[in-house]
Amino acid sequence: MPVSCAAYGCTNMYQVEYNISFFRFPVSNNDLMSKWVSAIKRKNFKLSQWSRICSIHFTEQDFQVRPEAHRLLLKDDAVPSIFPSFPSYLQKSNKIPRKTPTLRNTCNEDITVDNLEDNINQCDNMNLSSNFKSMEVQTETSYSNEEMFKNKIKILQQILRRKNKKIENLDDLVKSLKND
């Protein structure tokens, strides 16, 4: 029976001239075996005595360091994690670490249409002063609150513009009626 890789989309087969090793599934460790089976993303996969995973699917940290050894040996907890033949949405992305949170200014006033311009001026003045509220950690809640307030300000600005436009139109109507 030729030895080939069981990972989805992998066509590697054992050949003497290539430096690719093949590893059996860890049948004796059920937890680890289930991790391997879920990692290879094969629908209705049936494990057999001939099922193997090639060394391409393991990171360097998954192998034991054995100087002057000719054969690769996996660590006991190694799980295949590299699958170049997977579609991009199934591949793990290299996550970029987040930057540390910075100091942000906040406007704690309740915003209404009547005092919208005053609130905008207050928030602008806060930028000039050094009156910052320190946020130790930016959580989903604080971020969503910030977005909610920005949206609320935007909507109230739109309402104010519409009301001003109505006032202008009414003024024009009154002027035109006076002239007639």
Automatic annotation (TrEMBL):
Record keywords, A-Z: Coiled coil, DNA-binding, Metal-binding, Zinc, Zinc-finger
Domain THAP-type: 1-83
Domain of life from the UniProt record: Eukaryota
Coiled coil: 153-180
Example GO molecular function: zinc ion binding
PANTHER family: AGAP005574-PA, THAP-TYPE DOMAIN-CONTAINING PROTEIN
Protein name: THAP domain-containing protein 1-like
Organism: Sipha flava
